[in-house]
User: Fold this.
Amino acid sequence: MKLKSISLVNYKNLEEVNLTLSDKINCFTGKNGMGKTNMLDAIYYLSFGKSFSNQPDSFTVKHGTDYMMLHGCYIRKGENVDVSIGVQPGKRKIVKRNGKEYQRLSEHVGLLPVVMVSPLDLDLIRGGSDERRRFIDQIISQSNKNYLQALLSYNRALENRNHLLKNRVSDTLIYESVEFTLCETAKIIYNQRLNWIEQFSAIFHEYYNLISGNAERVVLKYESQLHDYSMQTILNENRTKDLALGFTSGGIHRDNLDLSVDGFSMRKIGSQGQCKTYTIALRLSQYEFLRQYSGVQPILLLDDIFDRLDGSRVENIINLTASQRFGQIFITDTDRTYVNQMIRRCGSPDYQMFSVDNGMCKAEEKGDACL
Assistant:
């Protein structure tokens, strides 16, 4: 899959951008705060219908303006796919594919798989379990529509149950229908997560070792109350406590992904370099998983990934991402050194350089980047 061109108006600090893109490597360079990351975020938004940082849609509209628009032209499995998104604060977001508006955004998720590697990924390690669940859900949802629908149904039922608890409704008969949905969808989610962790762990070990040079032993462990109890048992046993708290304290929405290195929690002992290696390996593994199960090569977005890594790990990442296993790549960096190295490793004239300055983005002459 390739993004052939992108146009945007009033996206964050970017006023108006129209770019024709390379099928292999696209590099955005410039000082910090100029809009490089926002270019990658616009590409991410076209795939997911939301920002990578999970900001409200109104935050994507450039300050002082009253709308934003995105448009991307793709080639997917030999067919043209045009996606456009319009946002006006206070109004319904419009997402269209080939000129036809989606009735539900979930219909779009997974069509244009994309993986973004970002400094914000540190939250996968330092943040709470919700960050890691979001990581799991994002991957499986892009490759499995049934999972996405089960997840949406579960979240709606959970919201309804929490509303009952908050209003101190105690009649168990009133909870029956909403809990039936919770239990049925929890089974689907749990089983899909079990299948996913088995497949994903093997991919992750390969990528972590390729980046680190087999320097550490890493383990991913899926933690869930459903390992030991059914969802209905969890709801029944916590009912009194949940009424006191005003929310559902147990269930599939409390699952976690435990990340360890050499037998210790990454959250507690991981150095900056180890954390960076870990998160990059997670994202590249996400790419490989989606490539295998979606039938298309995702777009890879690399946002300032080389900071805080030693030379050998940088070298390994460059060699990996420049290999044939990866398709179209978008890179941002303040320093062209690593960008130029990746272009040289690729050994292909198929690349494009863009400069980003104060919300303006323009194509540059290739110059001697490949020399």
Remarks:
- Residues 170 and 240 are 9 Å apart (CA to CA).
- The two ends are 28 Å apart (CA to CA).
- The longest strand covers residues 2-11.
